[in-house]
Amino acid sequence: MRPAAVIILAAGKGTRMKSPLPKVLHPLAGKSLLERAIIAAQALDPRVLGVVVRHERDMVVEHLSQVAPNAIPLDQDEIPGTGRALACALEQLQDKDYNLDGPVVVTSGDVPLLSGKTLQNFVAAHEAANATVSVAGARLADPTGYGRLVEEDGKLVAIVEHADATEEQRQIDLINAGIYVFDGRFALEALQKLGSDNAQGEVYLTDLVGIATESGLPAQSYLIADTWEVTGCNDPQQLAELEAEYYRRHPQEQDSVNAIDAGMPVKENK
C-alpha cells in the first residue's frame, strides 16, 4: 500500500554541531542531510511528504523549496519532543484535508545513509504483519544513550528511553533506530493521549507503543542489520565518519570529487 504520508523530523537545533547552520542543512557528499532523507522517503511514493520544521525555520523551508518543492513544511510549536512533532504534523495535514488512512512513516532528517530500499522493506513488513505500530531497531554492542525496545514473547511492548530505563532494561542491546510506521488513524487518536511525565520532560513519540499494547493492538520491531543506515549525525565527527562511509559505498562519487578538486575533467557515464 502506498503510504498515506512520510513525515521527516527536522525541527531540532543540532547544538552539538556547533554551527549557525541548522543540522539538517549540513552537506554530506554534496547533498544536505535533509535532501538525503528526502531521497530515501521518495522511494515510498507517499501521498504526501511532510517535513517538520522549527529551528531556523525560514532557512530550512527555503532549502526545502529548492530540493523538494512538493514537500510540505509542517511547523512544530514550542512544546518539545518527537511526539509533539508528529502530532503537530498530522494535525496540520488533516487541516489541509489530506487523507491519513493507511501507513504513516516517520523518519529523521539526520540519518543520511538510510536507503529507500530499506524503507520499502520496512513498510512491506509492517503491512505483512498487519501491525498498528512498527519500530525499526538495531543491535549495538554499546547501546548506552539509546532507547531500548522491550519485547515479551517476541512482541514489542514498550520503548524505554535510556534516562528512564531500569538497570535490567539497560542490558537490552536492541535499540530504537528512530524510524517508525504507524496506522494513521491510530496515530491521530493516540497522540492526543501523550504527556511529558518523564526524565526529559518531553512528549515521547515512543509512548505510542505502550498505548497500542494497552489497547490490544499489534506492535512489532523490525531489525535493520546495517547499523550505518540508522546512524544519526549529531556532531562534526559523526558527519565526517558518515561521509567517509558514504564514499566507501559509492567510490565513483569520491573519484568525481577528487577529479573536480584537481581541476580534471569528469568522465560522464552514458
TrEMBL record:
Record GO terms (molecular function): glucosamine-1-phosphate N-acetyltransferase activity; UDP-N-acetylglucosamine diphosphorylase activity
Keyword match Nucleotidyltransferase: yes
Domain of life: Bacteria
Keyword Nucleotidyltransferase applies: yes
Catalysed reaction equations from the record: N-acetyl-alpha-D-glucosamine 1-phosphate + UTP + H(+) = UDP-N-acetyl-alpha-D-glucosamine + diphosphate; alpha-D-glucosamine 1-phosphate + acetyl-CoA = N-acetyl-alpha-D-glucosamine 1-phosphate + CoA + H(+)
Alphabetical list of InterPro entries matching this protein: GlmU-like, MobA-like_NTP_Trfase, Nucleotide-diphossugar_trans
Key words, A-Z: Acyltransferase, Nucleotidyltransferase, Transferase
Alphabetical list of Pfam families matching this protein: NTP_transf_3 (PF12804)
Described function: Catalyzes the last two sequential reactions in the de novo biosynthetic pathway for UDP-N-acetylglucosamine (UDP-GlcNAc). The C-terminal domain catalyzes the transfer of acetyl group from acetyl coenzyme A to glucosamine-1-phosphate (GlcN-1-P) to produce N-acetylglucosamine-1-phosphate (GlcNAc-1-P), which is converted into UDP-GlcNAc by the transfer of uridine 5-monophosphate (from uridine 5-triphosphate), a reaction catalyzed by the N-terminal domain.
Protein name as annotated: MobA-like NTP transferase domain-containing protein
